[in-house]
Structures are given as C-alpha cells and as structure tokens.
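Sorry, explain these tokens?

***
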Amino acid sequence: MSLRARVIVFVAVVAVVATAATAYAVRDARRFQERSNRPPKAAQAPITAIPDGPRIAFRHTGLDSRYGTVALVSADEPGGARAFTGATCDRVDATVDGASCLRTERGVVFEADQLSPDWTVVDTHRLPGIPSRTRMSEDASLVATTSFVSGHSYMTQGFSTVTDVREVGGRDHGNLEKFQLVIDGREVSPSDRNVWGVTFRDDRGFFATVGTGGSTYLVAGDLDRRTLTTVTENAECPSLSPDGNRVAFKVDVAPGAQKVWQLAVMDLATGRRTELSGSPRGIDDQVEWLDDDTLLYGLPRDGEAGVTDVWSLDVGRETRPTLLIEDAWSPTVIRDEPRGNNS
C-alpha cells in the first residue's frame, strides 16, 4: 500500500473512532440528564408531615434530581414517605438542636456546615481534605469532623486523616492528633498516629479510633485534659449506644494487607466484646444506633455505582441484616430525649 493510501486509511479510522466516541459521549450525557431530571422514586412529603418522635435523617442516593440531599423519615415507618431538607451533604449527623453537614463543593473544596434545627446554614468552615465522618454531641454543643488529607479509604495503605472537635459557635479544640496519647498506661508520641471516628459521651468526653504501628485502638478522649487513653485494641469507628452502656465498632477479622471488617459491641462496664457474625464482611461505615438493640449502617448497592442503602442489624450474635431504607447513606437518628434517658 502506498504512503498516500495508508494516510487516507488512517484518517478514515480516526474519523470513525471520533464519531463513535462523540456518539457515546452524547448518549451518556443524555442518560445522565434523564436520570437527573427524574423525580425521586421514594414518596415525598413535607417535613411537617413526618410524625413527632424519633426520626432518621440520611443522605438520599437515588439517581434522580434529589441525589445527595438530606431526607427525613419516621423511625417508626422508615420505608414510608421521605421529607427532603434543603441541605446537600456527603456526611450528616443531627440532633433535635441542629446538624453537622460535610460536603464537597465543585469537587475540590471541602466544607463543614453547621445547620439549625430547620436545616438552614448558620456557620461554615473549610475542611483540609475529603469528608469522612462527623458526629455531634447530644446537646449539639460539640461537633467532630474527620477528613482524609491522604488517601480516600481506611483500606488504603498510608492514608492520613485530620479529626477536629469544635464547640458550636465557640472554641476549636483542634486536631486530636495533638492530644496526649496513652497506650496501656504509658504516654507515647508516635509520629504515624491517625485519629478518626469520634462518638461523644457528653460535652467533655468522647470515644474515637487511634491508628498507629499497624494497630487500631478504641480510645477515651478528654477535652479538658487533652488526652486519648486506650480502652481496647482492634476497634474502629465507634458509636455509643443511646443508654450510654455499650459501644459498637468495626473489628478486623482477617488481619493482613486487606482489611476485612465486621461489627462488634462492647459492654463498657465489663469490657465484654460480642462480635456480630451476621454483619456483612467488609463493612466500611461508622454505625448508628436506632435504639438500644439495633444498629444502622450504609452499604453500596451491587452493580449500581453511587447508590447505597441503609441496613439494620439487631445486636444479637446470630441475627441477620434487614434492608431498612433504600437509596440512603449516612443515617442519623434524631431523638426527643438525650442519651442515657432512653428506657
């Protein structure tokens, strides 16, 4: 074949490929637009229509125009109509007195919004990296945020986090990595420490995860003393029960290069740990307590990128998960009574 013929064939092939690529791009753009214009699959209701009593707030993940918006359902009817707020969040936690919302702006700016009880923004501050976890104290006086400054998952080797605790409208207690770490009664200062996954006990104390030296620890934190003291090993992303007597967390059941997590519950008075064999292997979430006997967590839906569902699991050893809320992520339970008063 002559040089001229080869050039003509090459140009023709490039044209065909470019045309096909353009067609695929147009098709995908149309599909995305169609998805974005769909009304939410779940039934909608005004916020005032959600009955009084415990409510579940969560990030809506249905592939429609409400994707990422925080919604509310009654805890007594979680599969019922959902009421959409005006807040768009990657992670959310809420009490009757306010909410914390972590979000990504234009893909490169990461922010934390403090929201009023009617879900309007009252304060905003920048996050140093990708939003990961947030929790508020029961009285809404404290808010904790965790973000990735390196990596994007707790499965990633060499990830780095920043976890900060602030008084709402007041003092910033700063990065918890600056607190004094006490492991097995000995003060240490490892350079590789990471702190994440805060859950508040009250307005001065909390639990969190510390990772260092290839191990993870459940630690008890004290804001006044600025200390983190280990409670038990192999525990991540804790969540304190409504009665304040137990803490749920993830445990690595197959230590090695690839983490394989399951859920466990520990009695704080006795230290007894119960691993929940019915929890899914590989769960990567900070669980929430629906009540003193039930955990909530999010899981990606197989085969549907970006779509997640919220599941429930009784804390009995042999129980199995139940699909609770479709198209949902980052569940938080809004209770009328503060922690410790739930009988």
Remarks:
- The chain has a mean pLDDT of 87.
- The longest strand covers residues 142-150.
- Residues 3-37 form the longest helix (35 residues).
